[in-house]
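Protein 1 of 2
SEQ + STRUCT:
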Amino acid sequence: MMSEPKRVHPISMFIDFISDAVSMIKNFIIPFFVLIFVNSNSSIRFYAFIILGVLLLWKAVLTVLAWRRFTYRMEDDEFRVESGVITKKKKYISFERIQTVNTSEGIFQRIFGLVRVQIETAGGTDGPEVSLTAITKAEAEQLKQSIFNRKKSLQQEEGEAFNENGEGTKEHLTVQKPMEEEVNVSYRMGVPELLLAATTSSGIGVIISGCLAIYTQIDEILPLDGFVKQFSFLSHASIEIYAILIFLAVLIAWILSVGVTALQYANFAAKRKGNDIIITRGLIERHQMTIPLARIQAVKLKENILREPFGFATVMLVSAGGSITEKETSSVLFPLIRKKKINELLSQFTDQYHLTPERELNKVPKRSLKRYLISYGFVPLLVGIILSVRFPPWGYLALIPLPFALFFGYLAYKQSGYVIKDQLIQLTTRGIGKTTGLILRKRMQNYTMTQSYFQKKGRVASIHTFVKSSALLDSFGVHHLKEEDAARVCDWYSYETNKSS
């Protein structure tokens, strides 16, 4: 297979320049903000603008040169990329190493009918192995088909070679399904589900923490005394006024959270085509991600406190490969789904994962209740006592979170547990929300049983396991199980035990 060297679309120069300029300004935003907007010396402002202009001009020149030097082609079962302005770089990626070819459409790509293509390998860490900023949709589809058709041919040739030598394993020989047996199913998120997912998302905490982080940074570099004086009347306001302001702040954060979630999951669709799951999402920027079934390491179910009472959950795929820069939303299979429908859809999209009803879990023993209540309530109780003593009577308000913490501790005690079905283990635990992990034994990187001095006296233990997730590890576990249950899971996981059976 051979093709002529190609360049990405010229609009990629503009897209890359904007991206690099935003990144540069973001990295130096504080000093430039101080020099240009806060500093009162006009000469310093003038030179600051000159420096900023020179940097942007230099970045524009580098972007044009980088576009001219960047070429890609397919040759000798490899995807080859040549780049570099000063130093010429060559990158050869074997088709066999390529895990996924993902596409996305930003605002500028959509205007010109183009897509961004990201090629990922099993060893990717900080980002995709190759990123083609802007190429035509037809070329992207042709590129994807050429890579995976040739990859499939190479795997079939390898399987035939193993057969001739009398080698190979059943697992290896069954990786590829005949075309007539390929599974094709789809799931599309409707507008009602999108609105419900947006209104019940837990992104409000992210919005509030982000606003607080911005406030603390701005407070260090800007003289906010004048701004604060404008609201000095609030120091004499009643408790009702403060309650109204807090409510308005939370309402605005919630509205922002709804908007962000709606933009993320608009036009969400998941499709299984053969041995691949293809996920598309996004309104302003459209993303398409392909996850081979062989890359799935675990299935994760998340239920926050708003969705759990109504029987809704989010289903996510924990997949190997990719990059640590991938957002968590990239791995969402079903953003919002009723728990009673999970097994029906999950069995269609994956071959080996199924959810066991909570009533069949092996729960933690009754003697673990006090441990959960202590672990959840100790910090709120300590903080509440300290603030109550130091700042009476307002400090007593710090004790308000205590009953909520104890309530969630009780829920964690009632719902935590595990169940083993053949080669699949299901682990359920919770913090504020509930998390359930479905992990195949062969996908577990390790199994750990921990037991503190007090746990040993109470004849309980905690278990943990890890699976590959991009370049990191994703963990699942249950605290304060019976000793014999923790040992039973260890025996099930043991390689020698499974090998002898």
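Protein 2 of 2
SEQ + STRUCT:
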Amino acid sequence: MSLEKNKNCADQAPLVRKTTDKPRRINKKRAALGVAAIAVAAAAAVSIGASASLDLSSGSSTDILQLSGFKYDKDDYKASSVMAAHDNLVRTRVLAAKSNNPDEQSADIAKKPPTVSLNKKSLTFKKLKDTATLVPSFSEEDAEVKYKWSSADEKIAKVDKNGTVTPVKNGSVKITCLEENSGAKAECTVNVKTVEVKGIRLNPTAVTMNLNESKTIKSKITNDDAENKKLKWSSSDEGVVKVDSKGKITSVAAGTATVTCAAVDGSGVKRSVKVTVNDVVALKEIQLNYIDIQFCGLGCVEQLSVMSYLPEAATDTSVTWSSTNENVAVVDQNGNVYPVDNGVCDIIATANDGSKVKASCPVTVSGVVNYVPVEPDYHVVIPQNININETANSIVEEADKYVGWLPYVWGGTDLTSGVDCSGFVCAIYAKFGINLWGIRTDLIYAGREVSLEEARAGDIIVYHGHVAIYDGNGGKIHAPTEGYMVTHDYGIGNYRSIRRVIE
């Protein structure tokens, strides 16, 4: 295209004006500006070496002005019907002229940018267990695509590499699908609207505990239809008390703290418990000195005690003793266990520090003979020349000679080979001329009954199925049971009666 050609084009501008503006006239100012604009555009075409011919009858003066960089007054220049009709054609031809490849450039410029669309523009979930898969479509057929999925907030909803959306908690979030090769993307709005937690109950509502102690706070959501029943536990001061994900609290130091249980579904529902930690190291474990105790007959005693405990720094190691069946065996607060009757029970040691730690010892009692009371038809023979005080003291002294070496023998009456409980008492009394053999199995009828306060050395202590000699100092000498020697115990236990034979 020559410079002369451009001049001719400029001369034809009034023809375009007439065709475009039939109903009205254009003032001289607009005409002059139009001529100047077209001239500048033509000059721009020449400067880039264009060879294509521009036909003003089918072109757009507006595009030519824009391409040439000419600035015009929008109020003075309204796009005419001719300018608008062939906008794309003019643009294509000018750009094609710049590249010197009209055919190829025209085809590329006409192509629209690629787009991605989804099968759903929005999703709503009412249950957290539900899922939905978004399906993308690409505008260009047969194109190689690579999709990348993302969630604006994974605390509300997540999306995997296949476009499957999983709700997490109530809220609204955008899910984005990006085609990485073209940069095109599409979005889907996800709304999670599930039934929220309405209330939480905690038990207990207040806790008092010792140092190094653990307890569990039980929780319950008040409405069963809550979709997300997960709860989050926290402590206001972990230097005083810690709490795990199941509500188990552990004391760390003396003081107070608040333990809070909160719903995680976004409802904001929460409840708290005040925890007070005392400056006390509580027992966690105690062990007794006996694994078990077996009594054969009555009149024996065994003493239980706390052999070991944990932790070693425990503040209070005292215990309270109790029996699960006092008809079988009883225990005093010193741990002394006394058989009562045939049977089985447990002796329990319970810590006094409030920790409720316990230890137990099983007790078995056997060999107790149940007496049938009958009126005896005999009398006790007591020599007339006995000095009461000397005899009483001598009975205890004589009985004490057999302690530790004379074995228990069922039915035995011999002070050299073995005796049972009644055989021992009768044999000792016989050495001083007092004949009790006729009531050996019924010594409950010997003499008369006296109280413990009245009892003195040499009196006979009668149990259910057992007898012994009172030592005068709160103890007894007796043949306890099989496997034992004659024993001197410093306690008398739960007796049935104390009998005075010698007045």
